[in-house]
Design goal:
about 350 residues, three-stranded antiparallel sheet, 15 helices, Arc Repressor Mutant, subunit A, 3 domains, nine-stranded mixed sheet, alpha/beta, Rossmann fold
């Protein structure tokens, strides 16, 4: 199943130590196997002796590791080891790279080219609809990677699932999987869910920055669907720039607070993005050919009217077009199916 070196790495990674410290231990020992065999020689590396003695205690027999392996097998979680064939190449130069990556679902997606699509919980309905469409089309050359939150991340995963290549990156361990995103069970079956920390690692404030750093290093570029002035999505963009990856952002009207961070990124040099083609052409990929849907006369009038404004209430559409609201409701529903309009709450509609 696993080599002795891999078993030793899995044992080491199960303890709440900083990733950089784990790598220092491995470097001092020369290998994970030697670290386990001579663990008593490394007490001087630990400032917290209680952790050292707890780790040493688990090496007295094989029960600790047997329980760990049984739990991974029961939950169908596969560890991916540092330096192994499936381990992300983009992480191998990081001093704080995870010793193990934990994965559930289609491991083959780790070998795909990857692109990050992220957004805050406050991402607008229009941006989420557009993000889902873009993420779906990116699944030609890329697997789409996002976080696990509702809002922009959820929209990205929805598109990734529709395109058949969705990867969700958790901020904590699998034991801290968020419950508010209803797509996660589907991603675990049809796509891939990954975590860069041991199973019972809780999500803390600093967990998101570490996850977002790894996400940026993992992917060839980042699209931000929605971000206020202070948003975790901007952290992903910050690290993408540091790693010399391309950053893309959806533009917002100046008055929309949920998009101030996106507009700021564009001002700083991020690529303004309205279609998947805006991204794909930057990577030399063929721009997707989209067949324009056939519209009725009324549908075309609504599309033209919504294109002139940020959003419009159905009653205002009714007045402007001279059409009863009950007739507009069915037509607007048809435009939503065709991906040309989206309902954003309070009977207000926006173009996509």
């Amino acid at each position: 199943m696993w080599t002795q070196e891999e078993k030793s790495l899995l044992w080491l990674d199960s303890f709440p130590l900083e990733p950089a410290f784990k790598h220092n231990l491995l470097a001092a020992a020369g290998s994970a196997v030697r670290l386990v065999k001579r663990f008593g020689d490394f007490s001087g590396h630990f400032s917290d002796k209680a952790v050292f003695f707890r780790m040493q205690e688990t090496l007295k027999d094989g029960s600790y590791f047997a329980a760990l392996a049984a739990r991974l097998e029961e939950e169908k979680i596969a560890p991916v080891f540092f330096g192994g064939e499936d381990y992300p190449v983009g992480w191998t130069t990081l001093t704080d790279a995870p010793v193990c990556l934990y994965a559930k679902g289609k491991l083959s997606l780790l070998k795909e080219r990857k692109f990050a699509v992220v957004g805050s919980r406050r991402t607008t309905e229009g941006a989420k609809k557009l993000g889902t469409s873009i993420a779906k089309e990116l699944c030609g050359p890329f697997a789409v990677v996002s976080g696990a939150a509702d809002g922009g991340d959820e929209a990205a995963l929805k598109g990734g699932l529709l395109g058949g290549k969705a990867i969700c990156f958790l901020a904590g361990g699998f034991g801290s999987t968020p419950k508010e995103n209803p797509l996660l069970p589907s991603v675990g079956k049809e796509g891939l869910v990954v975590a860069a920390c041991p199973l019972d690692t809780p999500v803390r404030v600093y967990s998101y920055e570490y996850r977002n750093k790894l996400l940026a290093a993992l992917c060839e570029g980042v699209l931000v669907l929605g971000a206020a002035k202070k948003s975790g999505a901007l952290i992903t963009a910050k690290y993408a720039k540091a790693f010399q990856k391309s950053v893309f952002a959806i533009p917002y009207a100046p008055s929309v607070a949920a998009g101030e961070g996106c507009n700021g990124l564009i001002k700083e040099g991020a690529y303004l993005t309205e279609t998947a083609g805006d991204i794909l052409t930057r990577y030399g990929c063929e721009k997707p050919q989209r067949v324009a849907p056939v519209l009725t006369e009324l549908e075309q009038k609504i599309v033209d009217l919504l294109a002139e404004v940020e959003e419009m209430h159905i009653s205002e559409l009714s007045n402007r077009l001279g059409v009863a609201t009950f007739k507009l409701t069915a037509t607007l529903a048809s435009l939503e199916v065709k991906g040309l309009a989206v309902k954003i709450g309070g009977n207000r509609y926006s173009a996509v």
